[in-house]
């Protein structure tokens, strides 16, 4: 896709996010809005997906295709929207988000058999370990697919992350690209005040990772360029860590930059104000 087309998809995804969270008066809009460019670029531009007659096909094994794992599962709205807009399941199903008997739970789960979901996530700190397992399996099976995983910056305070960070370079898991959403916010406040992560790039480099910075994580062209750079560095004995500098709540002016929109739903007036800033490009569900 051209950058302009990807930006149109991103605008619609942001509309989906605020409408989904408003519809059930529950969920996490801030981080979802901030990671929109990344997930749109991955699914609509970068990832090799299994298709049949031009339509995506999902199976749990993920053989001979790229895989994505969402470790910070609370930002499920952006993932659900991207999956639906890519054709994994009907866009109309977005209206069931977080409702009783819905397959679209607040944190992704597998027992609802929602296409695109391979693990239950949202218990923070676990996603990097899972992605390492999948990437290692691909290497053992001579599968050329790439494994991607997204974590939050607050999530770096979990100890399991650093066990996985040690494992990956030691075992030369060089078909893995991990992302950290560096929005500087978590549920209780700015990360520098809750528990300062300090220089995450230096930490991962010390652990043996190759580190890439995407300074403009909400600029589609910059994100796409960064993804191609990450892909080009694979296969040389080191995993790739991408530090994605984003804005919490990006795209909706009154949500931007504040931890207060980590897990709060907009009211009717706020929804209207948000939608007025986001073009409807693919049609609302």
From TrEMBL:
Top-level taxon: Bacteria
UniProt entry tagged with the keyword RNA-binding: no
Residue span, Transketolase N-terminal domain: 8-274
KW Protein biosynthesis (keyword) present: no
Cofactors that this protein relies on: thiamine diphosphate
Keywords: Thiamine pyrophosphate
The family this protein is said to belong to: Belongs to the transketolase family.
Alphabetical list of InterPro entries matching this protein: THDP-binding, Transketolase_N
Annotated organism of origin: Dyadobacter soli
Membrane-spanning intervals of the chain: none
Protein name: Transketolase
Pfam family, one: Transketolase_N
Gene3D superfamilies tied to this protein: 3.40.50.970
């Amino acid at each position: 896709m051209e950058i302009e087309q990807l930006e149109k998809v991103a605008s619609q995804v942001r509309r989906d996010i605020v409408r989904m969270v408003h519809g059930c008066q529950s969920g996490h809009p801030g981080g979802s809005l901030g990671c929109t460019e990344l997930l749109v670029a991955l699914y609509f531009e970068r990832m090799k997906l299994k298709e049949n007659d031009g339509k995506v096909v999902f199976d749990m094994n993920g053989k001979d295709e790229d895989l994505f794992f969402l470790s910070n599962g609370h930002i499920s709205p952006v993932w659900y929207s991207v999956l639906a807009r890519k054709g994994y399941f009907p866009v109309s199903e977005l209206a069931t988000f977080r409702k009783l008997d819905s397959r679209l739970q607040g944190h992704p789960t597998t027992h609802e058999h929602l296409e695109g979901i391979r693990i239950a996530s949202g218990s923070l700190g676990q996603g990097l370990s899972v992605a390492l397992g999948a990437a290692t399996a691909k290497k053992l099976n001579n599968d050329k697919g790439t494994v991607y995983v997204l974590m939050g910056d607050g999530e770096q305070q979990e100890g399991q992350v650093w066990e996985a960070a040690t494992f990956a370079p030691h075992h030369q898991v060089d078909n893995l690209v991990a992302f950290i959403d560096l929005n500087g916010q978590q549920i209780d406040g700015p990360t520098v005040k809750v528990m300062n992560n300090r220089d995450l790039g230096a930490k991962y480099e010390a652990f043996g990772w190759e580190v890439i910075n995407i300074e403009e994580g909400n600029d589609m062209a910059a994100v796409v360029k960064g993804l191609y750079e990450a892909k080009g560095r694979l296969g040389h004995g080191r995993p790739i860590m991408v530090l994605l500098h984003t804005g919490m709540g990006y795209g909706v002016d009154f949500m931007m930059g504040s931890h207060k929109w980590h897990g709060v739903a907009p009211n009717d007036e706020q929804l209207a104000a948000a939608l007025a800033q986001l073009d409807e490009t693919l049609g609302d569900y």
